[in-house]
Amino acid sequence: MKKNEVPQDDANMLDGKFREPCYAVDESGRYTIVKSVGWDPKNIVMQQAWDHIQKRVQEVKKKVMQGKLSPLAYHMERHQMDVRLLASYMGFSRWKVKRHLKPGRFNKLDQEVMERYAKVLNVTIDELKRTD
Amino acid sequence: MKIDFQHKQSAHCENGVTSNLLRHYGYDLSEPLVYGIGSGLFFAYMPFVKVNSIPVTSFRPFPGIIFKRVTQQLGISIEKKKFKDPRKAMTELDQVIEKGTPAGLLVGVYHLTYFPGPYRFHFNAHNIVVYGRENGGYIVSDPIMETPEYLSYEDLMRVRYAKGLFAPKGHMYYALNMPENIDLKSAVIKGIKRTCRDMLGIPVPMFGTKGIRFMAAKVRKYPEKLGSEKASLYLGQIIRAQEEIGTGGAGFRFIYAAFLQEAAELTGIGKLMKLSEDMTAVGDLWRNFAVESSRIVKNRSAANGSYPEVAEILLDIADREEAIYKKLKNAIS
Description:
- The complex is a heterodimer of chains A (about 130) and B (about 325).
- Helix content of chain A is about 50%, strand content about 10%.
- With about 130 residues, chain A is mainly alpha-helical.
- Chain A folds into 2 domains: about 5-40, no CATH class; about 40-130, 434 Repressor (Amino-terminal Domain) (Orthogonal Bundle).
- A two-stranded antiparallel sheet of chain A has the order 1-2.
- In chain A, a hairpin with a 5-residue loop joins strand 1 and strand 2 (about 30-35).
- Chain A is elongated.
- The termini of chain A are far apart.
- Chain B has about 325 residues and is an alpha+beta fold.
- Chain B is about 50% helix and about 15% strand.
- Chain B contains 11 helices and 8 strands.
- Chain B has helices at about 15-25, 30-35, 65-75, 85-100, 155-160, 185-200, 210-225, 230-245, 250-265, 270-300, 305-330, and strands at about 45-50, 55-60, 75-80, 105, 125-135, 135-140, 150, 170-175.
- Chain B is globular.
- At the A-B interface, strand 1, helix 1 and helix 3 of A face helix 8, helix 9 and helix 10 of B.
């Protein structure tokens, strides 16, 4: 890649927080560093990953609304977690977390467990019980 | 308490941490030099290991290995620690900083508060240096960022104890002793040798140039095996592994090409200059692969026919890279 070919396709993927250094060849053939704000192919696949996450979150949200899953499932999905990851953050076994994804079981959780879930998922207990 | 430490941004976090730490002790090694000596160039396609039910593609070796190899090669002794108890991990970090030693840490990026939102995935192989304390929090040199950052006690503890694949478990590392002299030339040669071995010699189809061909064969069959939506997700993931911050197929080839230029000067082996050009050309092909693949991702349904085309680019890349590593091996022996 030549110095003047370093892409500058800004899709706000970096939140304007920094520019990425890229190694590119200058006029004399030597490598130098040029900063880039982004590149379209990369922006496209990043957007794809986020759309996919959003789609899954909406699917889970629907199931929560239908009473098939507890709101915990929604917050787990929102944080891109699966049962295994949430279980290891909580220090619980996987089957225990799985049970808490059922609405009936979730509603009976005691305060202390609720608090821990809320902390791991970065919400208040009140928010943990909702899906908005 | 703030250690006099020079933060410098880099293309790959582990290169950056290693290079910044070495500079602190008076050895000014560029990012490409660190990358080459640490044999950071690698390839693995592992259909059996999945994250979010998508196969893992990796353009780098195991996290922490560049730092380990560079320090070993140069005769620098290091201390590495993991902790069961997060509070203890923080106390020990405080003690290390108090002694005036900047500390390298392995962290997860999901909870890094200063990271751009779109890049916050559960990814645990990120490296930072902590070099000071201020208002109960920590001054952080994150090689991805242009300037130093700040993390509160709670936030730093959280990223040090991220869970999941490659959970960092509070992993901390720092230099203990520096040698009087370092032999850069032999370190460079050894680094190149190891890269040739990694890319040509691992007798399993998932790794090195064999791995690239293996991936090409899988990609070719993505649409018929997975259906168009899943195929596009799988392909998108390969491009993300290739192009996301701090990783990279094309980007890594360019860093390696920059390394070969420096290596040519350090060792006096002129052939490395030509091989640097070849490596740049392969980097451009990887970029081409990303451009074509992202087109498929964008027009999901219409483009099933394009999968064999991008697979062809991969095969071309594999052939050219194989030739480069063989020539490299000869050039240094």
